[in-house]
Amino acid sequence: MTNIGDYLLAEVILWFIYATIIIVVLSVVRSLRNRTDSIAESNRVPRRKIAYGVAITTLLFLTIACLAGSSTPIIINGISYTDRFWLKTTDGLITVSLIMMVVAACFVAYGLSGINRRIHQKK
C-alpha cells in the first residue's frame, strides 16, 4: 500500500502550475507593451492606467505578502516541510489570492449597485 503523501500526478500538476505562471507573466507583459496612445482611453475609461495599476498592485501585494508570510515548519502526512522560502512564498500566494478575490467581489458589487451611474446623472 502506498503512502498518501506519494501523489501520482504531483509532477504533472507542478508543470501545469509552472506553465500557468509563464503564460500569466507573458500575457501581462504583452498587454502592457501593446497598449498604444489610441487605446489608452476608451469611453473615458483610462485603460492604460488601469492595466498598470492592476499589475503594480498585484506585484506589490505579492511582495509584501511573501515577505510577511509565515515560515513556521509544517507537517503534512508525516513529512516535515521546513524550507523557509517555499513556506513564505506559499503563504504569500494564498493570502494574496484571498485578498484579490475579496477586492474583485467588492468591485463587482460596486459595479452592479449603480452608485457610479447615479452620481454621474446628478451632475
Task: Provide the descriptors you would attach to this structure in a database record.
two-stranded antiparallel ribbon, mainly alpha, 4 strands, two-stranded antiparallel sheet, 123 residues
Please give a structural write-up.
With 123 residues, the protein is mainly alpha-helical. It has one domain. 68% of the residues lie in helices and 8% in strands. The chain has helices at residues 10-33, 47-68, 84-113, 115-122, and strands at 41-42, 45-46, 74-76, 79-81. A hairpin with a 2-residue loop joins strand 1 (41-42) and strand 2 (45-46). Helix 2 (47-68) runs antiparallel to helix 3 (84-113). The longest helix is centred in the last third of the chain and has 30 residues, at 84-113.
Quick structural overview:
With 123 residues, the protein is mainly alpha-helical. The protein is 68% helix and 8% strand. The longest helix has 30 residues.
Per-chain topology:
Layout: H1 10-33, E1 41-42, E2 45-46, H2 47-68, E3 74-76, E4 79-81, H3 84-113, H4 115-122
Antiparallel strand pairs: 1-2, 3-4
Helix pairs in contact: 2-3
Distance between the termini: 72 Å
Could you spell the SSE succession in H and E letters? HEEHEEHH
Low-confidence stretches: none
Q: Beta-strand percentage?
A: 5-15%
Write out the strand line-up for the largest beta sheet, numbering strands in chain order: 1-2
Radius of gyration: 20 Å
Give the count of helical stretches.
4
Please provide the count of β strands: 4
Structural class: mainly alpha
Average pLDDT across residues? Answer: 79
> How many structural domains are formed by the residues?
1
Helix content: 55-70%
Largest sheet: 2 strands, antiparallel
Shape: elongated
